[in-house]
Amino acid sequence: MAIALVTGASRGIGRATALLLAQEGYTVAVNYHHNMRAATEVVEAIQAAGGKAFSLRADISDESQVVAMFEAIDREAEPLTALVNNAGILFEQSTVENLTAERINRVLATNVTGYFLCCREAVKRMSVKRGGAGGAIVNVSSAAARLGSPGEYVDYAASKGAVDTLTTGLSLEVAAQGIRVNGIRPGFIYTDMHASGGEPGRVDRVKSLLPMQRGGQPEEVAQAIVWLLSDKASYVTGSFLELAGGK
Ligand SMILES: NC(=O)c1ccc[n+]([C@@H]2O[C@H](COP(=O)([O-])OP(=O)(O)OC[C@H]3O[C@@H](n4cnc5c(N)ncnc54)[C@H](OP(=O)(O)O)[C@@H]3O)[C@@H](O)[C@H]2O)c1
User: Fold this and answer.
1) Cβ of 180 below 6 Å from ligand 1
2) What are the residue boundaries of the structural domains of the chain, listed by start?
3) Which residues form the Ketoreductase domain (predicted)?
4) 135, 126 in Cβ contact below 8 A?
C-alpha cells in the first residue's frame, strides 16, 4: 500500500496511532528519539499482528537527522503518503517568570521547527506537482494552544499555537498539490508525557473538572488521526478536531 511516518511513535499517542495505521494497511515508519527498545516493541507488535513496520531513529529538531530519516524512507519500495507530526516535549511545570531562553528554545526546536522540517520533507515527496502521489498530514497540536497552560508550561502551549498556524498556512499552500493538512487538539490524555512535566497523576487530578469527567486514552486520539488521514476525510483540509472531553 503506502508508508505512513509517525514521529514519536515509541510510546503514548504516537504508539497507538502506529498500531492503528498498521491495522488499516499502512507500512508504518516508527520514528523515535531515545527509546529504541520501545520503538522495537511497537514494530514487533505490528508484525505479530500481520502488519508491516520499521523503526527510524531521528531527533526531529535536527535538520540533518530529519533529512536522513526521509531519505531512508525513500529507499523503501512504497511511497510515503501519510505523515503524523506527533513527537512533542514539555518540561517541568513552571510560571513564565521562571522560564529560561534555553528551555523555551528547546521546546520550540522540537515542537515547532521539528514539525516544519517533517512537513517540508513530506511535501517534497507527496506533491503531485513534483510527481508525487499526493498525501495527508496530521499535526498533533494540543488544547493547550487554546487554553494557554498558565502556571504549567506556557512555552509548550505557545509552541502548539504555532503548530496550529503552520497547519492553517500549509494546508492552503498545498491544497492544490494533492496534500491535505489537518490538526488535532487533544486535551488530557493518559500518557507518560505528564511525568515529564513533573506530575504523572495530572490527568486524574483534573479529570473531575472536565465536562466528560474523565481523561482520554491514546487510542481515542489515534482514531481521529487515522480518520483524518483516510479517504473518508477526502474533502477535509485546514481543519482541527478537538479531543478534549468537551473542555
Ligand atoms: N498526553 C496528552 O495529554 C497530550 C495532550 C495534548 C497534546 N499532546 C501531544 O501529543 C503528542 C504525543 O504526546 P504523548 O503524550 O504521546 O507524549 P509522550 O508519551 O511523552 O511521547 C513522546 C514521544 O515523542 C518522542 N520524541 C520526543 N522528542 C523527540 C524528538 N526530538 N525527536 C523524535 N521523537 C521525539 C518520544 O521518543 P523517545 O521516547 O524515543 O525519546 C516519544 O515517542 C505530543 O505532540 C503532545 O504535545 C499530548
Assistant:
1) no
2) 3-243
3) 2-187
4) yes
Q: Quick check: 177 and 122 in contact, CB under 8 A?
A: no
The pLDDT tens digits of the residues spanning 166-185 come to 999 999 999 999 999 999 99
- Over residues 226-234, the mean pLDDT reads 98
Nearest to 189 by CA among 240, 166, 223: 223
Q: How far apart are CA 72 and CA 2, in angstroms?
A: 15
DSSP codes joined into one string, 210-230: STTSSPBPHHHHHHHHHHHHS
Please indicate whether residue 42, judged by its CB atom, sits closer than 6 Å to ligand 1. Answer: no
The Cα 154–Cα 173 span in angstroms is 28
Contact between residue 231 and residue 2 where contact means Cβ atoms under 8 Å apart? no
17 pocket-lining for ligand 1 (C-beta < 6 Å):
no
| CATH 3.40.50.720 at 3-243, yes or no | yes
Q: Which of 26, 32, 115, 156 is catalytic?
A: 156
pLDDT of residue 109: 99
Distance CA 20, CA 32 (A): 17
